[in-house]
Amino acid sequence: MKEERIGVVSHYFGHLGVAAVVLEGELAVGETIHVRGHSTDLTQKVESIQLEHESISRARKGQDVGIKVKDHVREHDVVYKVTEDES
Q: Looking at the domain covering 2-83, what would its CATH class be?
């Protein structure tokens, strides 16, 4: 498995279970992410991405998106996209 840094958590909305992520790369629904931080270690498939309260299937670098997460994440946690190693 290969991990590519694609963003940083800017806020966590606990009542919604949503992480606000500032993207440094591209991300699409169906891809797998790994969120890592001081006390965070969460791997999950992306089931929902929102941009300004609208559902989107693909997000681009520079966008500030909401991603539904299965567990608590924290500000400054780093988000990685997990891909199959091509070797």
A: mainly beta
